[in-house]
From TrEMBL:
It comes from the Bacteria. This is Riboflavin biosynthesis protein RibD. CDD domains: Riboflavin_deaminase-reductase (cd01284). The gene is ribD. Binds 1 zinc ion. Substrate binds at residues 206, 226, 229. Its cofactor is Zn(2+). It catalyses: 2,5-diamino-6-hydroxy-4-(5-phosphoribosylamino)-pyrimidine + H2O + H(+) = 5-amino-6-(5-phospho-D-ribosylamino)uracil + NH4(+); 5-amino-6-(5-phospho-D-ribitylamino)uracil + NADP(+) = 5-amino-6-(5-phospho-D-ribosylamino)uracil + NADPH + H(+). NADP(+) binds at residues 176, 218, 222, 245.
Length: 388
């Protein structure tokens, strides 16, 4: 059976792609990761212009989506390659765009540069593209191969794809827990569970997300800043989002007091007091209103996530607390989980870090891939990812 004209030919499972196509796509995926958290609402894409050489591909140009989503990866890589792009191959982690937005479409730039062949990981689900970029380039004589490292590229683009297809951002949950499984003590001062290596890892993850999300319980208990404070990456702090049904967040909380430097959005119920909104807005925070949950317990999470998506958010990093984490699990909105386990036991009953719905996801959901436990200083770090 032949594929419809202009559509990528589906590969059978065991059919291998040429090694140079795979190697250059790996480079393009690594470049794409540089933009994570920094390109929304656009996807973080990587592109490589190359030509075959006796010892493997010769790289002529590299590009990744620039802060704010423009320029796209392809024109950056093409500009670096210059005249050498004529007759060369371009490997790209997402189908080049074909529509006129604020800039000319990348597929036009590719044709203008004289690229002979495009190796693309996946189609762009954006209805304005959705295969048209590939069709257009084929129609102009460019050879197009689609599907190289497709599952890796789908994962790298998961936030963008989820926003386009479902109208919600990808959610990564981060939990720190004691060796006996607690997120916090029931009362008393904040528990320091993990060490400096884990903190650095968490700050890097903040930089790779569009927003960091917490419930108001965490703001009231810990008064966190939730910024990225890694040297050199301070400018990569995500927007801070608090789910706060009745606007209990104090205007003096650090997350509000710093809202003019790093944006803070507070999601509240439609009937939350207007006076509290005024005080928070005067301090620099933005209040977003959504309905309450149908059962009355907090906010309607799907509506809250849809409201973030409507503002362009593709990747949300949830740092707790346990109540919000469990609600996200119950709502089926957990795409990845990062668990950091400290070496010390609490040694008395505290707040369990993992509720029953989340335990079900990480222990029994066949779609959750479980990574190896990796040591981070004195702590252990394990990742789970919903790759399908
Ligand atoms: N170890 C860790 O990784 C970690 C991380 C964060 C926090 N903590 C600890 O956890 C404790 C706070 O726990 P927590 O569970 O109360 O905090 P939380 O999950 O941050 O906040 C829960 C609050 O968020 C609001 N909320 C609004 N909509 C919600 C929804 N759909 N689902 C869930 N919550 C919603 C609710 O308050 P309203 O109804 O008033 O809006 C709810 O009480 C603190 O002791 C903190 O130190 C530990």
């Amino acid at each position: 059976m032949t594929a419809p004209a202009g559509r990528p030919r589906a590969r059978s499972p065991g059919e291998a792609f040429p090694p140079d196509d795979v190697a250059t796509m790996r480079i393009a995926l690594a470049l794409a990761r540089r933009g994570l958290g920094n390109t929304w609402p656009n996807p973080a894409v990587g592109a490589v212009v190359w030509t075959p050489g006796p010892d493997g591909p010769v790289i002529l140009g590299r590009g990744w989506t620039q802060p704010g989503g423009r320029p796209h990866a392809e024109p950056v890589a093409l500009a670096q390659a210059g005249a050498a792009a004529r007759g060369a191959t371009l490997s790209v982690t997402l189908e080049p765009c074909s529509h006129f937005g604020k800039t000319a479409p990348c597929s036009h730039a590719i044709l203008d540069a004289g690229i002979a062949r495009v190796v693309s990981a996946i189609e762009d689900p954006d209805p304005r593209v959705n295969g048209r970029g590939h069709i257009m380039m084929r129609a102009h004589g460019v050879t197009v191969s689609v599907g190289v490292l497709a599952s890796e590229a789908r994962w790298a683009n998961r936030g963008f794809i989820k926003r386009i297809v479902e109208g919600r951002p990808m959610v990564t949950l981060k939990l720190a827990r004691t060796a006996d499984g607690y997120a916090a003590a029931c009362a008393g001062p904040r528990l320091m569970i993990t060490g400096p290596e884990a903190a650095a890892r968490v700050h890097l993850m903040r930089a790779q997300h569009d927003v960091v999300l917490v419930g108001v319980g965490t703001v009231l208990a810990d008064d966190p800043l939730l910024t990225c404070r890694l040297p050199g990456l301070e400018h990569r702090s995500p927007v801070r989002v608090v789910l706060d049904t009745t606007l209990r967040t104090p205007p003096g909380a650090r997350i509000v007091a710093t809202a003019r430097e790093v944006p803070t959005w507070i999601v509240a119920a439609l009937d939350a007091p207007g006076a509290a909104e005024t005080a928070l807005a005067q301090a620099g925070a933005v209040v977003i209103r959504v309905p309450r949950a149908p059962d009355g317990a907090g906010l309607d999470l799907l509506a809250a996530l849809a409201a973030l998506s409507a503002r362009g958010v593709t990747r949300a990093f949830c740092e707790g607390g346990p109540r919000l984490a469990e609600s996200l699990a119950l709502a089926g909105q957990v795409d990845a989980v990062e668990i950091l386990t400290g070496p010390d036991r609490l040694g008395r009953p505290g707040l369990p870090s993992i509720g029953p719905a989340l335990a079900q996801i990480i222990e029994r959901d066949p779609q959750m891939e479980r990574g190896e436990a990796v040591p981070l200083g004195r702590d252990a770090w394990r990742s789970y990812a919903r790759r399908r």
